[in-house]
Amino acid sequence: MPDKKGATMLEDLPGEIMDMILIRLPSKDVGRCRVVNTSWRSATSTPKFMLKHHRRQPLVPIVDAHGRAVSHVVFGDVGGGTSSQELWPLVREGNLSFTLKGSCDGFLIIYHHTQPSFFIRNPVTRKYVILPQPQGQFNFVIGFYRHHPTGEYRVLWFSLSHDSSKSSVYVLTVGSDKPRRIIVKIPTVSSPSVENRLMNEVHFSSGFSPPVHHRGSLHWWLSGSSDITGGCADTIVFDTEAESFRWMRSPGQHCPNSMLFDMKGTLAFWAGSTPASFSTMDVWVMQDYEAQIWAFKYRIELSTVEASRQLYLTSYKKKKRTPIDSMVQSFNDMAVLNERELLVRFNGKHVLHCDVDGKFLGLVKIGKNQHCMRLAHYRLQESILPIPSHEMHQG
Amino acid sequence: MAATPADASSSSSEAVVGGEKSNKMITLISSDGESFEATEEAAKMSVTIKHMIEDGCADDGIPLPNVPAKILSMVIEYCNKHAADADDTNKHVADPADADEDDDNNNNNASAGEKEDLKSFDASLVAVDQATLFDIILAANFLSIKGLLDLACQKVADDIKDKSVEEVREIFKIENDFTKEEEEAVRKENAWAFNE
Prior knowledge:
The structure holds 2 protein chains of 2 kinds. Chain A has helices at 15-22, 27-33, 38-43, 47-56, 192-208, 226-229, 307-318, and strands at 59-66, 70-77, 85-89, 98-104, 107-112, 117-122, 127-130, 138-147, 152-160, 167-173, 180-182, 212-214, 217-221, 235-239, 244-248, 258-263, 266-271, 280-288, 293-301, 331-336, 341-346, 350-355, 360-363, 373-381, 393-394. Chain A has a 5-stranded antiparallel β-sheet, with no helix packed on it. A 4-stranded antiparallel β-sheet of chain A has the order 3-2-1-24, with no helix packed on it. By secondary structure, chain A is an alpha+beta fold. Chain A is globular. In chain B, a hairpin with a 5-residue loop joins strand 1 and strand 2 (35-39). In chain B, helix 4 runs antiparallel to helix 5 (112-125), helix 4 (69-93) packs across helix 6 and helix 6 (130-143) packs antiparallel against helix 7. Chain B is mainly α. Chain B has 9 helices and 3 strands. Chain B: This is SKP1-like protein. Chain B: Residues 24-83 form the SKP1 component POZ domain. Chain B: Its main location: nucleus. Chain B: It is found in: Nucleus.
């Protein structure tokens, strides 16, 4: 209600409306608003506000750029359009070398080679906590997910004995000190050695791309499992509530150059259309999860991506020291940005941005660097939420 | 500022799926006693007014003691423009042949030109001085017009974005009620928000 005595001021707006305004700000601006006055500070610091803010952020794929130092950047696309791309470093370049091992909502799992240890980090607030590991000799993260019934963030560990003969699986709830061992029982598999091999396949699959969290279960597509399963089911599924494993089928293209991924809440799968093909990619989506029916969605063909001409123009204009490949020769990998846009890695070193009709939209660059780009297959949805823990560090 | 009443003869030839299109005009009365007319369709963009119409309280005109004339006319302008757009969408969806599985967006059936037109209309509507913008927000909140409330709140957010703490305080005349030590502590806690 405007004050009859004077013009309406910002402080005249009720609290719920201030919340509606502040929640529309990007993460950094929210952080700065906390310093404006005490009421803005409390409004932006409630768990409810931070969660709502997080849920409004876009889910963006992470691109890994090996320049002189390892740096990971996030490819952000201004919502709903094909307009501009924004890349910014997730972790500051430093003397430490690290690898991204997992991502979930606004958190990343980072492995520091020199320490050596695993950390969970929020790249926006730069806070991190050490991740407790199981007691086995070699530990690997094979899953990082939010357990829906409790809202807890959990890490799935794969632990190998030093002679690689025995393996075990643990679940760690982020914020607790001790990982909890779970019994692995895979249907149709009776011998422990086969089970061991299968879990190694799961571990290998996680190294290429993380499992897809869908309907409360983690899904790993196994490229090398046909001899174990009899060639039928090739996807292992871990139910995060029952903590049990089961089998599923992918569209069954049997092409080594393939990947299971999430497309706006649906299970999806991309694969080269023939085993030897690196010039086309077929994308399938899960139509009926219960019946395991897949539907073909679209095909991207190299010949329709007008990359060659654009690449030539770029290198001609800028006179790069290292010439950019003027011909797209092979597809290696892809990540979906939204219904219409994709990131495609080609020729083993560049990543381009195109739409599903094959129209070239740009080359992914960090500064002037467009080489050695890799799709990390992790995605980030920014948040300013604290990491569940009693010991959070800043850095 | 008042919406022109639709001609009774011309509008009845349109077929709209689901819900009747009424030509009835609704009278809205501002806090300072001015009367404005709007089509029922446009007026119903306000959920508050929609309920009053459905409860039969609108026959003698709806008094809006919280909304001054200057703001009410802008609100009606918004409703007229956006009600027409929503109506266009409904007309298109009426033909199943036009249905496309990818059309999950309300505005999808509008042409690119129409979308641009709406966007620039919205932008100029909220390109007003601060006090007026806040009054629009209060009116949109009171009248429950989600689209207008979202639009106006986004404008304020855009005005805050990328500004320094001092600039925000100055532009919005906000008093800093932190003690020096408190402010330093909050700055330190949120240091991630400051450097580049």
